[in-house]
Amino acid sequence: MTNSSQSQRPASSASESSVPTVRVALLGAGNVGAEVARILLTDAVELGERIGARPKLIGIAVRDVDSPRTVTLPLELFTTDADALIDDADVVVELTGGIEPAKTRILRALNAGKPVISGNKALLAQHGEQLHAAAEAAGTSISYEAAVAGAIPIVRPMLDSLSGDKVKRVLGIMNGTTNYILDQMDTTGASFDDALAEAQRLGYAEADPTADVEGHDAASKVAILGGIAFHSSYTFDDVYCRGITGVTAEDVEAARRSGFVIKLLGVAERVTEGEGDQAQEKVNLRVVPTMLPRKHPLAGVHGAFNAVFVEAENAGELMFYGPGAGGAPTASAVMGDLVAALRRSVAGGPGVGPTFHAGLPATGMDGVKTSFALTLLCPDRTGVLAEISSVFAEHGVSISTMQQRDLPEDPAHPGQGQAELRFVTHRARNADLVRTVEAIRQMDVVLDMRGLIRVENDN
Amino acid sequence: MTNSSQSQRPASSASESSVPTVRVALLGAGNVGAEVARILLTDAVELGERIGARPKLIGIAVRDVDSPRTVTLPLELFTTDADALIDDADVVVELTGGIEPAKTRILRALNAGKPVISGNKALLAQHGEQLHAAAEAAGTSISYEAAVAGAIPIVRPMLDSLSGDKVKRVLGIMNGTTNYILDQMDTTGASFDDALAEAQRLGYAEADPTADVEGHDAASKVAILGGIAFHSSYTFDDVYCRGITGVTAEDVEAARRSGFVIKLLGVAERVTEGEGDQAQEKVNLRVVPTMLPRKHPLAGVHGAFNAVFVEAENAGELMFYGPGAGGAPTASAVMGDLVAALRRSVAGGPGVGPTFHAGLPATGMDGVKTSFALTLLCPDRTGVLAEISSVFAEHGVSISTMQQRDLPEDPAHPGQGQAELRFVTHRARNADLVRTVEAIRQMDVVLDMRGLIRVENDN
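ok -> structure tokens follow
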């Protein structure tokens, strides 16, 4: 591969025959694939200078050659024979999505020692370990910057720049659709349904928004990024996942009144379970709607932008911010992986992937320390707050703040005033918080419970 | 180096003899060096798992073995014989600073094919090209994430993640001292002198703050990062540099009133000079106090934090944020480079550095398009604004906004009222802006000119 112009294949033109070329196969011509093809065709000379060999797009495998495309590409590049294309290439870029046939095709390339670039988060969050093992066995690499947070360089910085540090926690806004919806709700007071409709109108949300709004898309990214951060291998099923369909305009407004904003956060964090000799390090992976203080750097991430906030033992707090989706931005991430992989190949030497040596087990929510906000509707009479406070105390959960708001009296029932009590707890074990909430929900003085949401705070 | 336990050197203990080791030489035991030593000694086993060989700190070269240290390190590691230490090592970490003897020592290591990690921005901004050439000739690498923006991963993302994109502009808050001072002035209304004194009291500024407040430190970083971003080689002398000593509390307050904040920005941007066939791409490198709209992501970077904002053709707008200085954060950047370089060495294959193939010439300020804010003190009478506006127009500079503020009349001179006119221009060639400002300064109706500062705006 160092100099494929020395191979039996003739170079396609006289001007290209003087420089070595590397043969690139592209699988998929969707939004991102079409942009990658455009960049490869337009910038081949400049990219060749950077790589040390000129990348040559030899073909684009698609299901249907005659499908309409958003970007005009030479028709002769299209083929339905992905296997032949892979076998003919030096490097393979997989941008088809889905588990099969993507997985079989990627393994075909890796087993032949060809570097693979992929943006397939679902596949990586399910079979990442197998793909990495295949790459390592063949002395090549699989790279997937585009699979996590679109254009934002986060996979590579995590792999390389933070490789000498100990990551404590990763918090990310990793889905642009849900961030757009929550940001709309926050800035305009819109309901979830209205904000979703607006997102669909603008093309930020798909007709079937389930994968986004239920947090599944973010969960795949958390599994991938958490694995790299903690040198362990996780899958989608290791991620506790709650979407934003239950977040109401009232929740958003209540958060705003307390100086918070609600974001759908993907979190991967180190958790110690047990004590003394029994203490064991585990990793909690979750996607949950979360209240963030407005001064937190992630609180300022608006619209469909993404950002990943990393807390590391030595580096401290880092944030990576940028577009989380879109054809050209995601193509930039793919191209970065491609150029980096090709530079390595041209220079010689095997690929280097993440290590999963730590094997920290994924853990459920019980041991995670977090805090909750919740709003209770109660009769407006003395003793109610004392009664509720004692239930918190019984479960070992302490209250950080309480705000009471007297509601206007119902004229039909004079003398029976109601009050809204809004609590934010200190950090406590999630299991204790859940038990506290259940006990409070059963209390006679609690007429209604609303706005139950996790809080990331410094308390 | 793949397995130095197979070399003639005996491993230092029985437990270590079973895994390959790599021998690390450290030059310098200052703030950052001491933290790197501590991490290497504490985390060797974990780092070994990541690298595939255990890093062994074989010595620390210092000028004076008996100097007091902030971190307690084994005395037997210290030596004054840097050359012998380098010759005995597999990899060299240079954290001494200054041009010599650092340069000679780094070349000694590179020429012997040993990877070098350095945090020496002054050296890299002066002799970077020579050091890269030496590394490439010997098939090894020099890495320096720590030289730019402390703990923030920016060199490697720029080198690898953005290697398939075309960078248009890099804007960075790359000096924590000046950002702390400007942030204090903005949030408390303090004068420059008071904010500097506070920064010195808190250890954010040195007793002699020249290198920071005059922008020299940021200029070195701009030269280094601009070179990587534009695949060209620049030195400190290519950077137009203005510090913040002339920024007054009034400037900060005026900016605040218009919805702006003043930051010391390091900028590297692509500039096209000439037109048509004569058009030539160049790169302008500058460090200048700049007004930023409050909604710009860099405007929210407070205290001693750093951030780098990148505009790329496909990726769009990215931001990298984190601590720009400090022993442990900077050590994290050094360790990331070290682990990445060692992983490559252990896996086999040569190092890969930046390419400088583009050779875009650095250019002065004349052709740069920017806008200016300036405040004029004028007699409060009709016709003044028209007179001044015509001077802007004569020089081809158009006005974006004008705010007039009538000043209270001086009781001693009734009838001679004065007004403050605050202009922000649209983007124009810097040379035209400078000529406009000079012409306005000469006008009879202009009693005083203040708060002249560049603006980054979307207009």
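Confidence is low (pLDDT under 50) at residues 1-16 of chain B.
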